[in-house]
Amino acid sequence: MVPLTPKPLSAVQLTKHHIPAYQNFPNTSLRPYPLMIYHSAYPSCLMPTSVEQHLTSVGIVQPAWRYTMYRQHHFHSTVHEVLVVVDGSARLCFGGSVSNPDKVEVEVGKGDVMIVPAGVGHALIEDKGSFEMVGSYPKESDNWDMCTGESDEKDKNWDNIRKLKWLKGDPVYGDQGPVVDVGKEGN
């Protein structure tokens, strides 16, 4: 198998979103790290195995699963999440609820990468066909939780997010890239 090479940074469209807290979803309100979407970071001819091999070789995150996204709005308080679309396309919602006036709804497709900071609510709104992602977490993380915005989660989980370290490098590009730049801004 030929190693997968992401597109050069200069050819990737990047969008960053700061999403205020909404109900019991902290989103990006607790830390300076935005939701980031690398549009078409990988060529559309990618295979899930080659994405997993590339992410593993960069060494920032460890691929953990292949799946779609849950329709239930949820967030993680113990890890930042890296999602790479490896098949199909979908409309996703970030922000904890479709009724959140500050939500981010975006259509993603094969080759897109999403860096989802801990606390950012996310859910599948519409699978537009064969939607599948590779989900990854920082290598030093062996435990990720799933919080659904219940009021009894708030104190402990929001405190976890405040203490969580940022990614040690860019999962796609290594020592350079948007994650590294945001980490410098956040420190």
TrEMBL record:
Domain Cupin type-1 positions: 72-125
Coiled coil spans: none
Matches recorded under Gene3D superfamilies: Jelly Rolls
Origin: domain of life: Eukaryota
Transmembrane segments: none
UniProt name for this protein: Cupin type-1 domain-containing protein
Species per Swiss-Prot/TrEMBL record: Kwoniella mangroviensis CBS 10435
